[in-house]
Design brief:
The complex is a heterodimer of chains A (109) and B (210). Chain A has 109 residues and is an all-alpha fold. Chain A has five helices and no strands. Chain A is globular and about 45 Å long. Chain B has 210 residues and is an all-alpha fold. Helix content of chain B is 49%, strand content 2%. Chain B has seven helices and two strands. In chain B, strands 1-2 form a two-stranded antiparallel sheet. In chain B, helix 1 packs antiparallel against helix 6, helix 2 crosses helix 3 and helix 2 crosses helix 5. The chains are: A mainly alpha (109), B mainly alpha (210). At the A-B interface, helix 1, helix 2, helix 3 and helix 4 of A face helix 3, helix 5, helix 6 and helix 7 of B.
Chain lengths: 109, 210
């Protein structure tokens, strides 16, 4: 959806940054958002206060809340779709190749 | 309700949705009592290292909770088959997934904000009452769904579980109606691109292809 949004709105994005945090996503606040998400999902309580402070300093409390909210929503949805075996939509196969990630055989519809 | 952290903006609408979700979590479901649903949530927290106390669950149920909470990406059809072979209804597994996913997402939200976890409410007494959609059949996923199994339909065999999840999700992110409408400004504190970056990175870390 990141790619689809970029295409629809003609805004640049480096989608490879999704799988490589060393890259610049080319999205404003991209690095701060990636660091914040990493700390939440990995439950890294050493990095989390730093990442939260950095995002707060760059964009304020609303950005912290929204980023945590979006991340949390996908924390739930990811678990649901994987736990019940929802197959990956074939229209995402190309982007998986681009990201150099392999869709497991059991999730290929 | 969790404490309000200093580096995050309050979101009373999301907090209200979470309070409703927690109340639903503590009430009897289709297959589990309120106390049993709370035990699933408690064990999910334990499995993630967010609470030191494990719940008293049967080994099969405890393992299912742990797997969904910690490594859902390693779920397989064989796990669902083993669940049924142990004498459980497949829709009870769907309820377990709904409960575990809900508490994991709420907890991740509080963790992100720097808030304390929400205390689990007291269990609502009563027996489970099946509230499944009779149209659900197993098609392209491992569990029954109404229609093709997609992310928005994954829980729709149990409409109440789906409704509660959706109520929280729409406050956090976007309603299903707008998820693919990229020309619509979501009116959030982050742009659509920023939210999609957060979503994509979250899914990548969870080894999820959604």
């Amino acid at each position: 959806m990141l790619r689809e949004n970029s295409n629809a709105n003609n805004t640049p994005v480096n989608i490879l940054a999704v799988t490589n945090a060393a890259l610049d996503p080319l999205v404003p606040l991209g690095r701060e958002l990636v660091a914040f998400v990493d700390a939440i999902v990995l439950l890294d309580f050493d990095e989390l206060p730093i990442a939260r402070q950095d995002l707060f300093d760059a964009a304020g409390p609303g950005a912290v809340t929204r980023a945590a909210a979006v991340c949390a929503g996908f924390e739930g949805t990811n678990r649901v779709v994987d736990a019940v075996g929802v197959p990956v939509n074939k229209r995402y196969y190309d982007i998986a190749d681009e990201l150099q990630v392999t869709i497991p055989e059991h999730l290929r519809g | 309700m969790a404490s309000q952290p200093t580096l995050a903006a309050p979101d009373p609408v999301a907090d209200a949705a979470i309070a409703s979700a927690l109340a639903h979590l503590a009430a009897p479901g289709s297959f589990f009592t309120g106390a049993e649903r709370l035990a699933l949530a408690q064990h999910a927290r334990y499995s993630r290292g967010l609470d030191p106390t494990a719940a008293d669950l049967s080994p099969v149920v405890a393992e299912a909770v742990r797997r969904v909470a910690v490594e859902a990406m390693h779920s397989r059809a064989e796990h669902v088959a083993a669940w049924e072979a142990d004498g459980h209804d497949v829709l009870a597994y769907v309820e377990l997934v709904a409960v575990v996913a809900q508490i994991c997402s709420i907890d991740s939200y509080r963790v992100g904000l720097g808030a304390n976890l929400d205390p689990l409410p007291a269990a609502v007494p009563g027996d489970p009452t099946p509230a499944n959609d009779d149209r659900a059949v197993t098609s392209n996923a491992w569990v029954p769904t109404v229609g093709v199994a997609l992310a928005p339909t994954a829980l729709n065999a149990l409409p109440e579980e789906k409704a509660v999840k959706d109520a929280v999700s729409k406050e956090w992110y976007l309603t299903d109606e707008f998820v693919h409408k990229y020309d619509v400004d979501p009116g959030r504190e982050l742009t659509r691109a920023q939210m999609e970056l957060v979503a994509s990175r979250t899914s990548y870390l969870n080894e999820c292809f959604f």
